[in-house]
Design goal:
The chain is mainly β. The protein has a single domain, classed as Factor Xa Inhibitor, CATH 4.10.410. Strands 1, 2, 3, 4, 5, 6, 7 and 8 form an 8-stranded antiparallel β-sheet that branches. A hairpin with an 8-residue loop joins β6 and β7. This is Phage major tail protein, TP901-1 family. It comes from Copranaerobaculum intestinale.
Length: 149
């Protein structure tokens, strides 16, 4: 469903590769029972004040880092949830996979990422949480909706 105007967060969808970086389209799965989703950008800017600038500084964006953070519940038996939870006990390349995010306007964001599992567990009467970050490994590919048509 392509839409205009404001939209609830649940209209953004994402899938992760259940076979790591070798995941094909058929291996892309959702992660059940996630409750919050946020995209954070960190930017590196180089600033300089040239003599010919009359005291005015110049700036250039020289670096970017993107992290998508998710919080939800641990759901045993869901392929995506199980894949992410298992990454808590892995390291190095075994924590790498692919991600595709679909936006309500029809745009997509695709990238390789490192899964950084933050939380599994809690108080004895809580439903077990699953909290993790998908940290972009390299430049993501953003495809605007207009280019997909």
């Amino acid at each position: 469903m392509i839409m205009n105007g404001v939209f609830p967060v649940y209209n953004m969808t994402f899938k992760i590769g259940s076979k790591g970086l070798t995941s094909a389209e058929a291996d892309m799965v959702s992660v059940k029972d996630m409750e919050s989703f946020s995209i954070a950008m960190e930017n590196g800017t180089e600033n300089w004040t040239p003599l010919d600038g009359s005291g005015w500084a110049r700036s250039l964006m020289t670096a970017k880092k993107m992290t998508i953070s998710l919080k939800g519940k641990r759901c045993i038996g869901d392929a995506g949830n199980d894949y992410v939870a298992a990454a808590a006990y892995k390291d190095a390349a075994d924590c790498a996979t692919k991600v595709i995010v679909d936006f309500p306007d029809g745009a997509t964001l695709a990238f390789d990422c490192v899964l950084d599992v933050k939380t599994i567990g809690g108080d004895s009467t809580n439903i077990t949480p699953l909290e993790f970050d998908m940290i972009a490994n390299g430049r993501p590919v953003y495809t605007p909706a207009a280019e997909k048509a």
